[in-house]
Each structure stands twice: as structure tokens, then as C-alpha cells.
Amino acid sequence: MPDQRKPYLCGGVFLTQLMQARKPRAGVREHYAGDSDGLSDPETMLAFIKVMSPDFTAPVGQTFKENTSSYKNCRKNSSTYLPFSVDSAEVRTYNDCVRGDYATALTRMMSFTDDFLEVGTSAKKDEYLVKALVEIIRNDKDIPDDTMFYINEGGLPSTKKQLLTITAVCFQAFLVGVWHYIIMNRQDNTLGRSTIIDWTPTYSETHIEQVYSAASSNTTEEPAKPSHLEDEATPTLEAEIVDEVPAGEEEPHSGQTGQAPKATKQVIMNNYGKGVQIEELNGTLTININ
After folding, report:
1. Using an 8 Å Cβ cutoff, are 282 and 264 in contact?
2. What are the φ/ψ torsions at residue 156 (nearest 5 degrees)?
């Protein structure tokens, strides 16, 4: 058994959080009727792989479904059916795309989020996904402060230290950058197993004021550059983990570390369109979900 660390940013941990941000799933009645909502774990995984490699085709039968479950839950690493090895043609091509043709990588991620994730709604799934990933990165002690993440809409990287101080972020670009870091640097997916098993995330230091979509943003903000800004305390949230694919779903097809929060600080999250403004008041720490 490999040495396991908590929290540990890897593919399974990332995808577990990502799938919490999916659009609403079909009900039990629809599943019993044999209807697929197109949002199962294997279908989501297939579409996400196509962000890296648009020509990728999933195998027929149960093999891809089983590999998806095992990878998402950090029981295995990449395989013939999941092309996440740093030596694979898919990863090499994606690395070249992110570093040399960022607009294409961003466009593909936009298509994925449009089809599979709930973005810009009162449920704030996109906001919570970003906050979750920021806190995992913050508390993963194996990621040095000078590690680069390609999380900016213009394609420029930011260091981990800068990432932890962002107040506005392009949702799709953030996903591009974090996933690119994972597939280039975190090949042993099983190291995240203990994070999946014992997950009790506390998002105590994330102070993102705005999560915006690349598809509709008119922001003129410059891409973040490395800095040495101080961290600030912010909301505590809680994540739900969904483990397995519901029964009765169809197989996929080709079309598809910082300081603790202060006790005297209250943060009220108000949703204004695509953005989220943070207002600080005296009192306890609370989250109002619209």
C-alpha cells in the first residue's frame, strides 16, 4: 500500500468534486423506466476525456464503467481505457494545447461545462467546486508554493501562492489549469484514496469574490501573476460525496494551509448574477444559500 496523504490532489479527488457540480440528475422513476439522463459517471468521464482528446472512444460493455468507478474512487491509476498516463499521446497532446493553444483547451472545457455542469445558478455548484479545489490545493503540503497552475483565461500561469489569494476566477479556465497540473504531476491516483474515504473538507480560507463563466464574461481583469499576498480567512462549507453510478443507467456513447477563521467574523455570500460578492460583518461565520 503506497504512503497516503490527506488531503491529496489527484485525478480521483478532482473528479469526485467535479461530479458534485453536475446538472440535476433524473429521478428514480426515470431510471427504473430505463431512461438515461446522459449525466452518469461513465458518460461524464467520457465527455471529460474528450476535453483532452476529442477523438477518444470508450469501449463497449461494462469495462469503461468499472474503470471510471475505480479511478474516481482512487482505487487504480490510468489504464488502457483511461488515457491519463503522462506518457500517453492524449496527455502529451493536451499539455501542448494548454501551453501553446490555450484558447482551444478553454473552448473544449466550456463545451463540457455547458453540457454537464450546473453553472451560474442559485445552487452555486460552480462556486463550491472552485472553493473545494482551492482548499484541497491549499492543504496539500506536497504542492510547493511556487508550483504553476494554468488557471487564467488568457493562458498565463499563476503560482500556488497566487492561486490561494485570487478574488475572481474564470470557472472553465480554473478547471483547465487544475486538471493539467494533475495529469502532468500526479500519476499515482491511489494516493488520494484516504482523502476519498475520510473526506471532511472545511473550506476555511477561500475568499473568492467572483466565479465567472468564460462564455458570458465581460471582465477586463488581467490574468493573475505570482505574488506574495497574505491569506485571509473566509467561509466554512461542507461537501457531499457520491460514490457509485445509480443502477439502471446506460453505457456511454461517443456523442456524449492557512489560519483558522476568526470567531468574530461573519461572511454573507450574496449571489448577484454570475458573480459572488462577500460582505464582512461582526458575528459568527455563516453561509446564506439562495
Report:
1. yes
2. -80, 145
Chain position carrying cell 461494462:
62
How far apart are alpha carbons 59 and 47 in whole angstroms? 14
Cis peptide before 252 (omega within 30 of 0): no
Half-sphere exposure of 74 (CA within 13 A, CB side): 30
Report residue 96 as a C-alpha cell: 501542448
d(CA 60, CA 141): 39
Q: State pTM to two decimals.
A: 0.72
Q: What H or E segment, with its residue span, contains residue 95?
A: helix 89-100
Q: Which of 54, 74, 45 is nearest to 241 (CA)?
A: 74
Q: What mean pLDDT, rounded, does the chain reach?
A: 77
HSE (side-chain half, CA atoms, 13 Å) at 107: 6
**Residue 202, CA distances (Å) to 7, 115, 126, 195, 261 in order:** 11, 29, 17, 13, 11
Neighbours of 270 (CB within 10 A): 11
Angstrom distance (rounded) from CA 204 to CA 140: 14
Q: Whose CA is closest to 267, among 230, 233, 231?
A: 233
Average confidence (pLDDT) over 130-137: 95
Q: Which of 19, 12, 208 is nearest to 127 (CA)?
A: 208
